[in-house]
Amino acid sequence: MSRMNMQGRARWRVLAVLVLAAVAAAIAYGWMDYQRFVRTPLAVTAPAPSIDVGKGSSLREVVGMLRAQRATTAGPLYWRVLAEQLRVAGRLHAGEYALTAGMTPRDLLLAMAAGKVLQRNFTIVDGWNFRELRQALAKADKLRQDGAALDEAALMARIGAPGESPEGRFLPETYAYVKGDSDLDILRRAHAAMARTLDALWPRRDKDLPLATPYDALILASIVEKETGRADERPRIAGVFTRRLRDHMLLQTDPTVIYGMGEAYAGNIHKADLAADTPYNTYTRPGLPPTPIAMPGKPAIEAALHPAAGSELYFVAKGDGTHVFSSTLDEHNRNVACYQLKRCP
User: Dihedral of CA 245/251/255/260: which sign?
Assistant: First the structure.
């Protein structure tokens, strides 16, 4: 074999070695870059970022959304390899997924495979009335508004409670929801939660209460809820109203008058308001008002069903969030003069 041929073959061998080395280096670099991609958290910049994956979306489309949000710079290939490695390729669920600080591509793919969609919370606050509840639902983030245009009767029919007054019927609690849920979904759950609560608590009520039905208890609990936010005072206030009902005394509670005034209430209540007869004016009408005046929490319901014993028939707000209680009208008048008229002896 000629020297020229030998040199040619040698050059080809060197070239082949160089090519193989380059390929090996490229593979090594690619593997290292892939491992970096797997370990590196997604770039989370917005306060509460998420990705909304529609039904039938491909992994390539998901990666495109992530790249558009600048959450990742990696192309579909790395994501496809990782999905195959995790055995979740073709098993990603549609839905909205939170992009949280520290979340890696692996975390996101596993969340999508498990269908761990983003949940939001809606809280019904103790003491809200139904109008306030609807206003809050209208502002809830990504909650479908199916009931916003319905009147109260139509809305109650839609949630499976036709003929019921909505006031007081929804248990104050925090309810989780996902994108695609509606205001009616939350109302159905809150209505069912209140019904379960009453069903559980009513049979264990104190004996000889002047309450004929669980609905009566709900009405009384709503008054207790509006009169005080202090846990230690709820049973005492419930006791005052229970004794007044039993003795056929007028309840004379301002929150019911305010409720009866509706949107005419501007922050203050006057003597003329106390004298203006409405179905909710407990200064002019005996017994309980026709419906609850707010949504009572479970503690207020328990207080209505287990009122404190005693002889107290009156209470007056002290101006610091607490009340002073009394058993006689003379004592009550002195308390009114002291704490409301600032004429303390």
Answer: positive
Residue written as token pair 């287990």: 306
Tell the residue number behind the tokens 């999905």, with chain if given.
Answer: 83
Q: CA–CA separation, 202 vs 199, rounded Å?
A: 6
Task: Tell me the fold of 34-114.
Answer: Dna Ligase; domain 1 (3.30.1490)
Q: Does the structure show a pLDDT above 90 at 239?
A: yes
* CB 126, CB 301: distance < 8 Å: no
| Packing angle of the helix pair 76-86, 59-68 (nearest 10 deg) | 130
Closest CA to 276 of 268, 284, 264: 284
- Mean of all residue pLDDT scores within the chain: 91
Q: What pLDDT shows up at residue 27?
A: 64
> Would you say the pTM of this structure is higher than 0.90?
no
The packing angle between helices 234-246 and 298-305, to 10°, is: 40
Tokens encoding 250:
């007028």
pLDDT at position 263, please? 87
User: What is the sign, positive or negative, of the torsion defined by CA atoms of 335, 341, 344, 345?
Assistant: negative
Are 190 and 168 contacting, i.e. CB atoms less than 8 angstroms apart?
A: no
- Between these two residues, 36 and 290, which has the higher pLDDT value? 290
* pLDDT score for 139: 96
**Parts of the chain belonging to CATH 3.30.1490:** 34-114
Element (H, E) at 3: helix 3-39
What percent of the chain shows pLDDT beyond 70? 91
